Amino acid sequence: MVARKPANSLPAPVEASLKKLGSNIKTARLRRVITMQELAEKVGVSRQIIAAIEKGNATTSIGSYIKTLWMLNLLDDLHYVADPDNDEEGKTLERINRPSKAVKSQRQELDNDF
Questions:
Q1: What is the mean pLDDT of the chain?
Q2: Most Cβ neighbours (<10 Å): which of 8, 15, 33, 84?
Q3: Which CATH code for domain 12-94?
């Protein structure tokens, strides 16, 4: 019998990215010599939420992650995430699906000669 993954399990790359983000946030907090409790108060969440963020917990709200990044002055790089200008696959698909020529209107011009 093959064991099934739980329905709420994440693909490995997604889970690894969340864990890396959490680890990066923890490193930033420690470098600033801020306790979890102090960061939690600044962010407006509980210390348990900060602990969950630092573990890369997938069920913690994205808003909590983003506000934590903001409080640590790390939000600027987030603007590059999913930036359409950096989406090479999307741009390629857009070029492939774009019509090669604009379709000329088939309507006949009406003349004003009565």
A1: 89
A2: 15
A3: 1.10.260.40
